[in-house]
Design brief:
Order of helices and strands: EEHEHEHEHEEEEEEEHEHEHEEH
CATH architecture of the largest domain: 3-Layer(aba) Sandwich
InterPro entries: DHS-like_NAD/FAD-binding_dom (IPR029035), ETF_a/b_N (IPR014730), ETF_a/FixB (IPR001308), ETF_alpha_N (IPR033947), ETF_asu_C (IPR014731), Rossmann-like_a/b/a_fold (IPR014729)
Organism: Ohessyouella blattaphilus
Number of helices: 8
Strand content: 25-35%
Family: Belongs to the ETF alpha-subunit/FixB family.
Protein name: Electron transfer flavoprotein subunit alpha/FixB family protein
Number of domains: 2
Shape: globular
Bound molecules: flavin-adenine dinucleotide
CATH superfamily of the largest domain: HUPs
Pfam family, one: ETF
Helix content: 25-40%
């Protein structure tokens, strides 16, 4: 086995900011680094700009590669760029966000390095031998599988946003290696570009009201949406209502939806399957309303309410409107 050393984080950048998932990964990487005592590295690919450079320089990494571009930069170029610095330091671990970019990229780097990837991890730890214990839900979320990449390096893992707390502390200046990427080198000509909205949908909300299969009619969702807005948040849902076509997929919380960690989450008629709870168990305060006192959601709820949502929601609405 090629022996790797160091923890490498792929820092995804959009516009002039570092994506939150990358800062969460970096916080986790700092924890792992304390145990392994190995160097921490980062690589970022982003648009030329002072604001992004300042953010990158303050990160707690020993060395950072910054690939800059003007205009369009195509992912076709990224693989080569990241592989170049990975081959330079031969890290033991490579962490990426479980975003469309990070996930696609992780598998391509893994093929090039002839190593494995564990996608969508929910826990990362180190064993005594320095192996990364990559834990993720398996078989539809019915079991948690801990996976080791024992024979090859780097050990590559992707993690979705919201699983780990975001990096908060300030740090020393990182050593920065600046390199440039150019569209001309990609062999692809970009004909049209459309900017996607950066509002982050339900993942950016501090307050979420979640509708589950306990909601009997599509029209009833209006009351729940009104409640969410009066509380200053948004309406999300379990997969049950997405499958019925009542709520868009972008509002789904869980294993095959979004991972959220709001300040407050209020679930209404959600049973709390493992697939659902994987996506919201890090919420700061969980309030659950369910008619069944044995519902699994109560095992993680800070405020379990055994009751009928059709009584509780109208009462809450009246109360909130009186206070307006
Ligand atoms: C591979 C895979 C991935 C999946 N990914 C996801 C995912 O990302 N997100 C997700 O949500 N699911 C996911 N699922 C589906 C998941 O297993 C469940 O089917 C789903 O979470 C159930 O949604 P629910 O809790 O709304 O419905 P149910 O499990 O049917 O629960 C409805 C609850 O409402 C309660 N209730 C009924 N009436 C009332 C009332 N009047 N007032 C209060 N409570 C009431 C009931 O007691 C019950 O507990 C996935 C499944 C698989 C196999």
């Amino acid at each position: 086995m090629t022996k790797g050393r160091g923890i490498f984080v792929f820092l995804e950048c959009t516009g002039n900011r570092i994506e939150e998932v990358s800062l969460e990964l970096l916080a986790k990487a700092c924890e792992l680094q304390k145990l392994s005592q190995e160097p921490l590295y980062g690589v970022a690919i982003g648009k030329e700009g002072k604001e992004l450079e300042t953010q990158l320089l303050s990160l707690p990494v020993e060395k950072l590669w910054w690939y800059r571009y003007d205009g369009a930069c195509l992912p076709a170029l990224w693989e080569e760029a990241v592989l170049a610095c990975i081959e330079e330091v031969l890290p033991s671990v490579l962490l990426l966000g479980g975003t469309p970019i990070g996930s696609g990229f992780a598998s391509r780097v893994a093929v090039a390095m002839k190593t494995g990837v564990t996608a969508d991890c929910t826990m990362l730890e180190l064993d005594e031998g320095g192996n990364l214990i990559q834990t993720r839900p398996a078989f539809g979320g019915n079991i948690m599988a801990s996976i080791l990449t024992e024979k090859t390096r780097p050990q590559i893992a992707t993690v979705r946003q919201g699983i780990f707390p975001v990096l908060t502390k300030k740090h020393q200046q990182a050593e920065m290696v600046k390199r440039r990427l150019s569209e001309q080198d990609s062999g692809v000509r970009l004909l049209k570009r459309e900017e996607k909205s950066l509002d982050g949908g339900i993942t950016k909300q501090e307050i979420l009201v979640v509708a589950g299969r306990g909601v009997k009619r599509e029209d009833d969702l209006e009351q729940l949406r009104e409640l969410a807005h009066l509380l200053g948040g948004e309406l999300a849902s379990s997969r049950a209502l997405v499958e019925k076509g009542w709520m868009p997929q972008s509002t789904q919380i869980g294993l095959s939806g979004n991972v959220v960690s709001p300040q407050v989450i209020l679930t209404l008629g959600v049973s709390g399957t493992i697939q659902f709870m994987t996506g919201m168990k890090n919420a700061k305060k969980i309030i659950a309303v369910n008619t069944d006192k044995e519902a699994p959601i109560f095992s993680i709820a800070h405020f379990p309410i055994v009751g009928d949502l059709y009584t509780i929601v109208p009462n809450l609405l009246t109360l909130l409107k009186e206070r307006e």
